[in-house]
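In this supplementary section we document a worked example of the pipeline. Step one takes a protein sequence of length 184 as its only input; no multiple sequence alignment statistics are reported here. Step two produces a three-dimensional model, which step three serialises into structure tokens for compact storage. The input and output of this example are shown verbatim.
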Amino acid sequence: MAASSTPMPAGTLAPDFQLPDTVSGNTLSLDTLRGQRGTVVMFICNHCPYVVHVQQELVRLANDYRARGVAFVAICANDAERYPDDAPERMREEAHRLGYPFPYLHDETQSTARAYDAVCTPDIYLFDKDLRLTYRGQLDDSRPRNDVPVTGSSLRAALDATIAGQPVEGEQKASVGCSIKWRE
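The serialised model returned by step three reads:
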């Protein structure tokens, strides 16, 4: 079932977290992961067709912007008992298969997703160097089966503005994807 992200006021401080990284096995916090010029926090998962559709661009974006002082972190908050494709072992396999250049954290309690008011996968947040929200929205206009190329244009424009210390201009279109699979 498709869902879309909800607006969040610009300037909102990023909620802190401490979550296990499925690749390294280490517990990581927002403070240790943050970038010098910005931080992208993405709620994703393994099985959602909307995430699968953009995975390669997420890797390209992270590789393109790391050298510019932007950190990327992915978090999966889906109920792994009901959705075993999103279990930590499968997350680790997916991160290795795709060459994720960012940590892929498991939010088993779903408390981090709730703190961010995450709604769907992908749900993308961009914070400036002070961890203040500058953008929450879509990667770009591409969706599975709409024949629009995946370019990351919406997030790239927001990243460029944030790095330059400028406000993100224009409409921030909601991200669309599968709803987060909450525990019952």
